[in-house]
C-alpha cells in the first residue's frame, strides 16, 4: 500500500498550511486548511487550486491558529472536520475577538488524560 502525500501549501512560507494524505482507495485526509498570513482580511477563494474540492475528504486541524484553519469555511460542507477538544474550544472564541462568522461544527476527540471508556461495565 502506498499513500500519496501532497503539500498544497506551506513549504515556502509560514502560514496557510494545507497537506493531503491520499490512500489508493480514494480516501483522503486533509491536514489543515490554513489562511495564508499575507492574505487580506475578507479575501475569499484562497484554498490552493491543487486541492480537489470535488472529491470527498476528511479534514483534521492540527491546532487553533488561523494559519491552520482559517479557510475552513471554503471547504465543502459535507467534509467532516475533526479537531481536539482544546482546539475547538479556542476556535469558538475567534468570532468574539475578530468579528468573523462562527466556524462550522467540529467533531472532536477527548482531551489528553481524559478517562476513556473501556466498554466494560463494572
UniProtKB/TrEMBL annotation:
What organism is listed for this UniProt entry? Rubellimicrobium mesophilum DSM 19309
Query: Pfam families attached here?
Result: Lactamase_B
Which residue intervals are annotated with compositional bias (Basic residues) in the record?
A: 109-122
- Ranges for region Disordered: 103-122
Looking at the record, the residues that make up the Metallo-beta-lactamase domain are 15-105
Q: Which InterPro entries match?
A: Metallo-B-lactamas, RibonucZ/Hydroxyglut_hydro
| Protein name as catalogued | Beta-lactamase domain protein
Its ancestry begins with: Bacteria, Pseudomonadati, Pseudomonadota, Alphaproteobacteria, Rhodobacterales
Tell me which domain of life the UniProt entry assigns to the organism this sequence originates from.
Answer: Bacteria
